[in-house]
Structures are given as structure tokens and as C-alpha cells.
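Can't attach files on this board, so I'm pasting raw text. These are the components:
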Amino acid sequence: MSTVTSAVRLPQKGSALVFLQRYGVYLAIALLLLFNLFFTPNFMTIDNFRVQFIQVVPVLIVALGMALVIGTEGIDLSVGAVMALSAAVIPLYIGYGPLPAAILAVLAGCLIGLANGTMIALIGVQPIVATLSLMVAGRGIALLVADEQLKSVIDPGFLALGRGTIAGVPYSVLLALVLVGLVAVLVNRTTFGKQLVSIGGSRRAAELAGLPVKRVLITIYILAAALASIAGIIQTARLSASVPSTVGNLIELSAITAVVIGGTPLSGGQVKVLGTVAGALLLQLIAASLIKHNVPDAYSQITQAVIILLAVYLQRGKAVLK
Amino acid sequence: MTEQLSTAAPAPVLEARGVGKTFTGVTALQGVDFTLRAGESLALMGENGAGKSTLIKVLTGVYQPDEGELFLHGEPASFAKPVDAQHAGISTIYQEVNLVPLMTVAQNIFLGREPRNRFGLIDFRKMQEDARALLATYDIHVDVRRPLRSLALGMQQMVALARAVSIDARVVIMDEPTSSLEAREVETLFRVIGMLRSQGIAIVYVSHRMDEIFTICETVTVLRDGKVVHNGRLADLSRVELVALMLGRSVEKVKRGGVTAFGEVKEGEGEPVLTARDMSRKHQISGIGLDIRPGEVVGLGGLLGSGRSETLKAMAGVMQLDEGSLTVDGKRVRSGSVAAAIKAGVVMLPEDRKAEGIIPNLSIRDNIVLAALPRLSRAGFTSRAKQDAIVDVFMKRLRIKAASPNQVVSELSGGNQQKVMIARWLAMNPKVLLLDEPTRGIDVGAKAEVQALINELADEGLAIVLVSSELEEVVEGSARVVVLRDGSVERELRGSEVTEHHLMAALVGENHSPAEESPAEIKERL
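---
Top answer:
C-alpha cells for the assembled complex are below.
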């Protein structure tokens, strides 16, 4: 499930490096858990893990979309703004009930994805430029929609999304699991998934093979926005308030980090869904471990930076091995 | 094949002696001797992969030679970086102008050496006056305050040329300078070249257009497979002789022989499956018409730059046509859409397999089924069983050698990659197969296999168009050959005319009379 090609490669030179590239993120999680088992009181408890899972959900969902975009050799910086817009839409329509409000919030977010996709696929704007412009504009629109105000949301049905559980598992975590499954199926078992990685592998070759490159690209950016909108809805439910000015700030960086340390190369052509999940979890566990040891947040950020460098270095090693 | 220049020639400006260059085991240049004298205009000729661009890059400091030496004005010289060569007076004009499009003409000409006023700021007035004066010496009149990109391409090239010369260039290397110019702009370029030569500036001219070479150049150096095969005066060569040198064929001893793995070829019968009429696109092809019948291999001959690849691209929907039509089985095919061409049954094996063909990171299976995937899926969900059925058939039939269908395609040899590409298209049940250099860069064994396969596919009724820069492949693989020159159909060879000799004559445009034309007559004709 974790590799798109599911290609069987024979053992080759530098197999330790290959091992690290493929399983490094899982190894890091295992080591971190081991460390916490011995040195952090009350870490290996169900309650703690419930908290960690709840906290990782927004980044994880955003990272799923980011992984699709990066698989096409793109990038989406506007995901935080999309979260803000969907958060801003919720209080406007919550009167019609939680579901209609959520659907409208996702649709609003998808409009930003459509704008991204159109600029990138049809006009040929570089993904980083197109999504940067919507990162700025999108949050502006969100603030306009919300009248620049923080609004509390008290609909009990809606808040259940943030607090309710089934057999002790929070709704939001279940939702995230379902989305992981859907994206994994999309990537590994559908025509669309194959076309996505083909475009990332060689856009020119994909065009010459008659693939609907533009349509696939636009759809990918809409999907990424839809996933970010869902993250925005979950975040709003958890906070019991729509906070378009801050929700999703800098989340694009965490999402990109999760994707990259999960083994999806920034050069596209591969999407590692399980790796992305592990990447998001690793980030969350590092932050949590440091907090439990009262290490200032600044160090957590520095640790993230080191991990990104390590992950990108390993990917570069892969290119050399080829 | 020896130095034929008279002893009275001016002193050499730039010389290379015994230059060699190797890239990871592939020899690009070997023992190259090259001499350029002041005021000379030298044509550097050679087909794809002959080493022209490597030599230019060695002369301009982009590459360092592995062996041999460069001499500038008789002194040993070495250029560690392109800027060293520029400072030594060697300028290069590329077909794509490499100046700053948003800056004005004057700013571009004086980029990096702007005149200053007494406050140390740029003196724009002086800069503009100087730029205007400089251009006027070449009879070029243009508003120097306009941004460069607002000028026509030809004019931009003149500006680049003026800039080069004003930095005291002694050598100007022009790489395909006319490929995007209008006829009038070419005239201006030639006039400027003449003025530069009268100032003692030496010109190295690289072009695939024979007419231009014979008009503007005085001497010629021909490269083939990284070696110099000829140095001498252009006036001593006929066009056929020059092409024979480039392709490594002797004019007299051209005979048909079993060099390739092609079997017997025959012309197709019945109604054409593909009919192209008046296909035109500015600067690339004009008025090309073709009829391709089921079961025949039609060769598309032409030198590099003749429009052969463009013609294939137009038929495959990769290149949008300005004019003209393409019909397959009586139905008009929309131009500029690969999907429409594939749907009509026209598929193309692209020339650059690595960049335009394979998806390197995907498996053999994924690469083979790429185009056929929608057909092999149900409601968008892929079916491994359906894929495996197809992949298995083609891997066996085309004898693709691999560990398994799961192997990543970039790990395969060039020949096997090419077979994967052919399998991708055969899985689409095409009617017309367009092959652009199907055997380039693959080893001899695989080459013979691909050639035999082309034969076999035609026998089964597929219509095939074959482009190859290897003469014997075109001649032996095709029942008839349509020869292109400068973007138009020059001639069609059929039956007994399909020989290397006839093909070469047609390549250079010696249409019906193989008699020699003197360069003077050719100039006259222009």
C-alpha cells in the first residue's frame, strides 16, 4: 500500500541507504516510542495516545492532499487559507444544520482548489506561485466572509465531530482513517491514481501518451482543497469556534514535511500514503515528547528542520543510486 | 581530406589541436583539429551526435577538453568558464536569444558595462546614444528604449550580435541562427555577417540549411562520430559530397546490401488509411501532403531540420497545425490533440525516448498499459488481471527482457525500453504507427529485433511511417520514401528509386538533374 509501483527491486548497492529511505520514518517512530517508554512518565498510555491522535488529525488530512499534489511534482501552499475559508463558512450556515454547513464549507474550499488547478494546468503558472497567491488571497477572502470576527459555534451535533467517540475512538480520528483508506485506494487502485503518478514522473511523456493531463491536475488541486476544508471543519469543531485569522497558519509547512519524511519525493512520480501518515505521526510525537520534557517549542521547530534535511538528503541519495 | 587552404591565409585566431572529450565512457570528440582564421566564415557540419555542440562548448569554455589544446592567436589558451572565453573575444549567438527580455535594447547591449556619469550612476542618455550609434553601423534602426522582447526575433538576434561585437569579439559562433527568422531577417543577418568579416572577425556558422551554408560560408569542417572527417574550402565540394561526408557514405559506392534486419518490403494496396493534406505550421513545415496505406512502411527522409519530426508530431496531434487537414479512414482528425489522434488510431513513438516516452519511475506493466488504462479498468478502478493479460502477451511477443513486469522501466536497456513503448501503442490497436528514430541509442541486437518487428507489423496490415537519420534504415525498411527539405516535400522515391544515392540527392535538393551545380550558380538561384 505504501508504494505506488509496488515494484520488487532486487537488493542492490547501498542497501542500508535504501532501507532508510523506505522505512526510516517507521524506524524513527519506533525509536521515539522506545525512548518515551523508558524516559517519559505517562506517555505510553491510551489517554495520551488519544490526545496525540486527535491533535495530528488536521495535519494528517491536509498532508494526504499535499501528497497527491507533490506526486504530480506540484506543491500547494494555500491549504491553510482553505482551512480558514471553510472555518469562516461554517458559522454562516450552521443554522441549516451541521451537514449542510459542512458541505458548503467544503464547496467553498474547492473553489480555491479550482482556482489553483486552473492557473497551474491551463495557464501554466508554476504551482508554487499560483498557490502562494491563493495562500494570501484565500485568507483575505476568509476574513471578509467572517467579517474579521471570531465566532463561536455551539451546535451540539457539529461539536460532536470534535468531541464524540465510538468505543473510545474519536469521530475525527475515524474520519481521518476513512480518508486515508480512500486516498490509498485512489492512488493504488484507480486509473486516476496511475495517471497522477505518470504526470509526476514525466509530464511530457504523459501528454504524448494521450493522458488527460490538465483534467487530472485540476482535479488533484480540488481534492487537496477539499481535504484541507475537512481539516478546517474538524479544527473548528474542536475549538468550538471559527477562527479564520489563525486556523491553519503554517500548516502547509507541517504537511509538506510529513509528506517528504514519509518518503514521497518532491520531484513527483510517487505517492506514499502510509508513509505520509507515518510522517505526520512522527512530527506529532516529536513535538509531544519535547513538550513532556519541558523543552521549549523553539527546539521542536529546530528538530523538525533537522528531520526535513535528513529526509531530503536521503531522497537525494536515492537519485544518486539510480 | 587534408588541409587545403592556401598558405597566404591570414593567421589563425582560434585553433584546437587533438581535442578529445569523453562523457562517462561515451566518446563525444576524438583528436579534433580545428582552425579558424581572421575574417573567415566557417561552416561546422555534422548530423545528430556528430559532436558539433560538444566542440562549440569546448571552444566557449562550457566544457574542458579531456585531451588536446586550444590556441588563441597562436598562444595556448584554456577557458575554465564561459566567461573566460567571452573575455578572450569568443562570443556565441544561440538560436534562442539569451539576453534579458524585459530590459531595453540599450540596457541589453551595455549590460554589465553601463556608462557612468560623474556621480557613478548609469548615464542613460549616453547609453542610448551609444547603442543607437552602434546599431546604425550595421544599418539597424530600432528604438533602443524599447524592451528587447517587443522586437521581432530576428531583430533581437541582431541586438545580441551587436552586443557580442561591441565587447570586442574576435570570434562569433552562431548556432542555428536562422531557424526562427523570416527571409528578410536572414538577409539582414547575412549582411551583418559580411560586415563583421570585413572587420576581421571570424564566424563559425552552424546550420542545417544547405542553401545558407553555401551562400555565407567560405570553408567547412565536417564532424562525424566525434572526429573531423573533412576540412577545406566549401567551393571544392558539391552538396552531395558534403552530405556524403556528413553521413559517412561515399557517393559512388552506394549499394543495397543486408546491413539491416529488414526483410522484403512492399508498397501498400487499396485506399490510404491516413491522408494528410497541406499540413503547415509557421517556420516548421509547409504544405506537406501524405497518403499512407495499410501494410506499408513509408520512410520520411530529410536532414535534421527538414521538418521530418515536425511532420510526425503534426500527425500525432502533438503539434497544432496552422493549416491543413488529417483524415484517418475518411474521418477528419482534430489537430493539436494527442487524445484525438490516438482515438483515430494514430500513435507515435517519440524521438526522445527518455524524456518523452517512458515514465521512468513506473514499472514495465504500468508503462505498457499507460495509454490503454481506461479500457482495462472498470468504473475507474484498475484491474490487475486485465492488465496482466495484455502485459504478458506483449512481453512475450516483443521479447522484452526483464526480471518481471514489476521491474522499474528505467532499469531496462534502451532496446527493451523501446519495446515497452511499442507495446504501449500496440495495446491501443492502432491503424497508423509513427516511428521517430526507433532504433536510436539501442544496441545492435535489439536494433535488428526492432527492425524485424517493424517489418512484421506492416505485414499484419499496420500502416507505418518511419523517420530515421540512418540512411540504410530508411532505404531498406521502406517501400517508398517521401523526402522532406526545408519543411516541404522535396520528392517521393518509389520502387527502384529507393536507394541511398537517390535519397542523398533528394536530401540536398538536387532534384531531377544529379548534375553538379557550382556554388556560384547556387548563389545565383537564391
